[in-house]
Amino acid sequence: MSHYKPYPAYRDSGVEWIGDVPSCWQVKRLRQVASFTNSGIDKKSYEDQEQVSLCNYTDVYYNEFITADMPFMQATASKDEIAQFTLKKGDLIITKDSEDPSDIGIPALVIEDAPGVVCGYHLTLIRSDELATARLLHRTLQSTPTHAYFFIESPGITRYGLGQDVIGDLRVCMPPANEISRIADCIDRETKRIDSLITKKTRFIELLKEKRQALITHAVTKGLDPNVKMRDSKVEWIGAIPAQWLVAQLGKISIARCDGPFGSGLKSEHYQSEGVRVIRLQNIGWAAFKDGNEAFISHEHWQDVLGCGHEVLPNDLLMGGLGDDKNPLGRACVAPDNLGNAMVKADCYRFRLDKNRATPEFIALALSATARSECGYLATGATRDRLNLGLASARVVPLPPPGEQVDIVTFLSRATDRIDRLTEKTQHSIDLLKERRSAFITAAVTGQIDLREPA
């Protein structure tokens, strides 16, 4: 932002978290420039009320702007509620309460009239007389000082909320009336430019991930030699494989297997800060073990109550028995060397492979690569995809000769490392753009940069 100049003169705003403001600006409370009302319209429908579309918490939380054609949920409201809370162009809506104080005060601007759409529960509707003022307030609500103010002023233990006085006392920096629209336009242009860059870089990361997965899938099912003779594996989700490869069930290449204890064997009160490490679903990633989700139980409980039949050793294969959209059912990884004493929890399966036939890293890659397609045939469960230990053992994998398994793992380690480094670098640039976006908005709405003339 070095190409933007400051205003000619500044004065103390009288507000610690804002600092100095341009001498021609005013610092006001939100109640002086806009009205605000909490909505009480919930998602239930009542026979004596009228049908409406409900702009709810998630609509505001995940969208910077609200339009009339968004897929709102259906509910009902009274005539008075419809009159008061039907969305109009220039309305501002903020999240009023949450289980996380950092999720409070998230704003969305209504950019067109939305007949039949009303502001819902857990939200505050803010209205000003001028559209330009609403646009500037929208950016003010996105600024760092506002986030800090709401964070501090939202008391709670398990749920946090903003009181009416807190919302009304929010300090906002107001330029002269004839400058507001120009400043809002400039903020819109710059944030749109940054958002476009973020979108492009995000799409690039998606392509890198797709390339990474395709590379792994091809290597573990087709091998590294493009000229090798192929044959039909007779397994739909594996397809053709090199002629000298086998196809084997996981249970047939394992010398031992187990799952975690169910029911009363392991409860929340058994966990402690150290002891025997408990491997949970959160630890099992796409062919990679995830640290940072530590859970432990005492050695005594492990030995006396659970026995040692659930133990995990380095190089054991771990598989997830539950799945969702983000974490595919049947994903697998290899237990790392630094586990110490460890065991699997319910819905986590441990396989100890026959090292003469199977390389754990290769099998983990192969199982993860085919997880979505294969486990769709095997899964059971009404509400969540699930594999029991028997079905997990029945999963099939392509099985090259042991030496070729090692070669494929080595090749993939190098190839995916290059992709991962590029992905990490791109993600870092996205994070910097987001920081720049936030810093620009904050500087603009507090007058730290002069946007009255082109930069």
Describe the secondary structure blueprint for this structure:
Blueprint lengths: L9 E3 L7 E3 L3 E4 H4 L1 E4 L11 E6 L1 H5 L3 E2 L6 E5 L1 H7 E2 L4 E4 L1 E2 L8 E4 L3 E6 L3 E5 L3 H12 L1 H9 L7 E2 L2 H5 L2 E4 L2 H46 L7 E3 L7 E3 L3 E4 L4 E6 L11 E2 L3 E4 L16 E2 L1 H8 L10 E4 L1 E2 L8 E3 L7 E3 L3 E6 L6 H10 L1 H8 L6 E2 L2 H5 L2 E4 L2 H44 L10
Parallel strand pairs: 5-12, 6-11, 21-26
Antiparallel strand pairs: 1-2, 3-15, 4-13, 5-7, 8-12, 9-11, 9-13, 10-14, 16-17, 18-29, 19-27, 20-22, 21-22, 23-25, 23-27, 24-28
Q: What does the average pLDDT come to? A: 92
Query: Unreliable runs, pLDDT <50, ≥5 residues?
Result: none
Q: What would you give as the CATH superfamily of the largest domain? A: DNA methylase specificity domains
Q: At the first level of CATH, what is the class of the largest domain?
A: Alpha Beta
Number of strand elements: 29
Give the tags.
five-stranded mixed β-sheet, Adenine-n6-DNA-methyltransferase TaqI, Chain A, domain 2, 3 domains, 12 helices, single chain, 455 residues, alpha+beta, four-stranded mixed β-sheet
